[in-house]
Specification:
It is built from 16 helices and 17 strands. By secondary structure, the chain is an alpha/beta fold. The chain folds into three domains: 167 residues, NAD(P)-binding Rossmann-like Domain (Rossmann fold), CATH 3.40.50; 162 residues, 2-Layer Sandwich (Dihydrodipicolinate Reductase, domain 2), CATH 3.30.360; 87 residues, Alpha-Beta Plaits (2-Layer Sandwich), CATH 3.30.70. Helix 1 packs across helix 13, helix 5 packs parallel to helix 6 and helix 6 runs parallel beside helix 11.
């Protein structure tokens, strides 16, 4: 049987990894797919560099539309990234009847509903395993492996840059700014790390997982997004003393009121496996009603780990290439006409527990005032840690840190209490609030 012919748009880190792994393992991949899979055409602005990677037998052009227009190409891999030209090219490839494989989580999180609808109308597939957690096959697990389950919640460390930074802050006791510079030097963080450190990248990924888990449209604009830029080494140290580690989590949860969709730093009990995921590694925990808790761990980025996911998509499409489109696995796991209109909850309606750190005057009655405000709001306390003044500010200090862990409370109610606490004369600095997730 004639091999499936693939056109590659962009041959950077992931593109070159995809080409190399496909070449290296081509016989094994062919045995699994049932026919050969060949990248026969590549588009890249740097034609000479691209040609040096793929060799003389692959046609290299500087115009992506030439790849899409080629009638011999069955599948287009989009590895350009971003929302702009990438969206136009994906939509043109679909219109031309090409299947699409993409690692572009930003594009799908923002425009996925439109893209999947266009693909369904044209009878082609859009595969995106590589868009979430790199080499971890979490999309396939959610969409197929766990299809018998009513998914209850997902929590994931899905950005390696921020996990590396938090691991370094904990191990070395350094503040965020210092570790970010080191992460940039080592190549773990981009020159402009905004998408990573502000939580946007993780929010793109959890938006896609939420849609698949709960059968809702992709709704990135409804996600609550908070990064790690305001975290200090002090809070990481206190969390450790209380039996927790701080991780940037992407969380989505089914509740009676609607779907939670949020990214923020979270205290996670040190005994949880996910709390011990260090460095640039990724991990996703999924809770299903039948299977219970499952954990998926591995490299979330990198040339060949991400290429592994891209090629898995190529194999899936190759197997299903001639299948009736109505009998393929739906893009978002649920049949397109059976998607739910469950609403995404505003953050003020989310119920969770909290870590609070207050820099307060070292004087009698402060703790009573603070706990009194919590009690009046119906917020119960799980633990309190009060530091000696000389531990915090040195000998003779008149300030100390008060750390409180709360039980579950609605975020809006906590916001009201925090405003009251902040207004106390004995509270001397902005209060630090970090959400706490037990992940039971």
């Amino acid at each position: 049987m004639k091999p499936i012919q693939v056109g590659l748009l962009g041959i950077g880190t992931v593109g070159s990894g995809t080409f190399n792994v496909l070449q290296r393992n081509q016989e094994e991949i062919k045995r699994r797919a049932g026919r050969g899979i060949e990248i026969t055409m590549v588009a890249d602005l740097d034609v000479a560099r691209a040609q040096s990677i793929v060799g003389p037998d692959v046609k290299v052009v500087n115009d992506a539309r030439a790849v899409i227009a080629n009638p011999e190409i069955d599948i287009v891999i989009e590895l350009i990234g971003g929302y702009g030209i990438a969206k136009a090219l994906v939509m043109e490839a679909i219109a031309a009847g090409k299947h699409v494989v993409t690692a572009n989580k930003a594009l799908l999180a923002v425009h996925g509903t439109e893209i999947f609808a266009a693909a369904s109308a044209k009878g082609v597939m859009v595969a995106f395993e590589a868009a979430v957690a790199g080499g971890i096959p979490i999309i396939k697990a959610l969409r197929e492996g766990l299809t018998a389950n009513s998914i209850q919640w997902i929590a994931g460390i899905i950005n390696g840059t921020t996990n590396f930074i938090l691991s370094e802050m904990r191990d070395k006791g350094l503040d965020f700014d210092v570790v970010l510079k080191e992460a940039q030097r080592l190549g773990y963080a981009e020159a402009d790390p905004t998408f990573d450190i502000e939580g946007v990248d993780a929010a793109h990924k959890v938006t896609l997982m939420s849609a698949i888990a709960f059968g809702i449209p992709v709704q990135f604009d409804k996600a609550y997004v908070e990064g790690i830029t305001k975290l200090g080494a002090t809070d990481i140290k206190y969390a450790e003393q209380l039996g927790y580690r701080i991780k940037l989590l992407g969380i989505t949860k089914r509740t009676a009121q609607g779907i939670e969709l949020r990214v923020h730093p979270s205290l996670v009990p040190s005994k949880r496996l996910i709390a011990n995921v260090e460095g640039a590694m990724n991990a996703v925990v999924v809770q299903g009603d039948a299977v219970g808790t499952t954990l998926y761990y591995g490299k979330g980025a990198g040339s060949e780990p991400t290429a592994s996911a891209v090629i898995a998509d190529l194999v899936d499409i190759t197997r299903l290439h001639t299948a009736d489109p109505l009998h393929r696995v739906p893009h978002l796991a649920f049949q397109p006409d059976k998607m739910s209109d469950l609403s995404v909850l505003p953050m003020s309606e989310v119920v969770t527990s909290y870590y609070l750190r207050l820099r307060v005057a070292d004087e009698a009655g402060v703790l009573a005032k603070v706990t009194g405000l919590l009690a009046n709001a119906g917020i119960s306390i799980d633990a309190v840690l009060q530091r000696e003044a000389d531990e915090v500010g040195g000998e003779g200090s008149t300030q100390t840190d008060l750390i409180i862990l709360t039980h579950d409370i609605r975020e809006g109610a906590m916001n009201d209490v925090l405003a009251q606490m902040q207004a106390l004369p004995s509270v001397l600095a902005p209060i630090t609030r970090i959400r706490k997730e037990e992940l039971n």
